């Protein structure tokens, strides 16, 4: 019995090694792509914290190569977790799936460029508040890499430029698709919108649940974190701030 178990383990680990070697074979024999990108980011003096975008330092081809490198590293994590990925039909391709999920989906805000945002003149010189929400928030916490799920609301008092309303959802999705802590995420979304349209007033509210507090840790199913950023006329004028919160309360914020 002992012999057959040890034979199975040996077979599995050699199959895993063979699989990893096959993926590595297809990679060029130079520095790992992650190192090449990292050197480039450092040379440019750019930060590369978990919640920073490094998309402008990566080509599309390099992104594909990066996924292969991540796949190999993830496979070794699964090997260390003593999971028989060679024989378990459920986890055979998991390293590849997770690598793709990180780079192209849940952390695409680090590796893919910001969506195209067209702006238009504020032809009628609207200087009233408009709000948008709820906007779905999907992110992951930097501490445990588990999901943050919630909603956000935006308030704008425009200046001379406006953008299509769907672009707010796209910007929130792009910025939030990185590992984050919520306080910094809220500031990053607000900064991105401010840089794009320089509104006279900007408010951003985010309400989200952190799986690191529900699925694990304190296992608290109801706690949500709320952050609000108010800038320009929303900060200077208490009536405008109140109007914004009244408006979003009417659109689900208080639920
Ligand atoms: N301020 C802030 N904290 C967060 C956020 N997301 C997760 N956290 C918290 O970050 C903390 C990480 O703390 P640590 O004590 O290093 O990690 P831990 O030992 O796993 O902590 P527990 O979650 O309490 O088990 C946890 O208390 C999380 O609840 C966030 O967006 N903002």
From TrEMBL:
Signal peptide segment: none
Catalytic activity reported: GTP + H2O = 7,8-dihydroneopterin 3'-triphosphate + formate + H(+)
GO biological process terms held by the UniProt record: one-carbon metabolic process; tetrahydrobiopterin biosynthetic process; tetrahydrofolate biosynthetic process
Lineage: superkingdom: Bacteria
Molecular function, one GO term: GTP cyclohydrolase I activity
GO CC field: cytoplasm
Residues annotated as domain GTP cyclohydrolase I: 85-249
InterPro entries xref list: GTP-CH-I_C/QueF (IPR043133), GTP-CH-I_N (IPR043134), GTP_CycHdrlase_I (IPR001474), GTP_CycHdrlase_I_dom (IPR020602)
Pathway membership, UniProt: Cofactor biosynthesis; 7,8-dihydroneopterin triphosphate biosynthesis; 7,8-dihydroneopterin triphosphate from GTP: step 1/1
Any single Pfam family the record assigns to this protein: GTP_cyclohydroI
The name this protein goes by in its record: GTP cyclohydrolase I
Native species: Pseudanabaena cinerea FACHB-1277
């Amino acid at each position: 019995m002992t012999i057959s178990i040890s034979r199975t383990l040996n077979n599995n680990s050699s199959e895993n090694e063979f699989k990893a070697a096959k993926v590595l074979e297809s990679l060029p024999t130079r520095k790992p792509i992650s190192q090449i990108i990292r050197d480039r980011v450092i040379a440019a003096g750019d930060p590369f914290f978990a919640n920073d975008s490094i998309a402008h330092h990566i080509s599309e081809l390099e992104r594909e190569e990066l996924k292969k490198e991540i796949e190999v590293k993830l496979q070794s994590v699964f090997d260390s977790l003593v999971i028989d990925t060679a024989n378990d039909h459920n986890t055979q391709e998991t390293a590849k799936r997770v690598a793709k999920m990180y780079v192209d989906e849940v952390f695409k805000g680090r590796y893919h460029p910001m969506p195209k945002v067209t702006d238009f003149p504020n032809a009628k010189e609207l200087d009233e508040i408009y709000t948008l929400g709820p906007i779905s928030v999907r992110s992951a916490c930097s501490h445990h890499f588990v999901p943050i799920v919630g909603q956000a609301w935006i308030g704008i008092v425009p200046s001379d430029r406006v953008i299509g309303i769907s672009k707010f959802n796209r910007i929130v999705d792009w910025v939030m698709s990185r590992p984050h802590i919520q306080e910094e995420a809220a500031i990053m979304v607000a900064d991105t919108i401010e840089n794009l349209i320089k509104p006279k007033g900007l408010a951003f509210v985010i309400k989200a649940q952190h799986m690191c507090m529900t699925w694990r840790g304190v296992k608290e199913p109801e706690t949500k974190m709320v952050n609000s950023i108010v800038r320009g006329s929303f900060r200077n004028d208490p009536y405008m701030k109140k109007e914004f919160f009244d408006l979003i309360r009417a659109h689900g914020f208080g639920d």
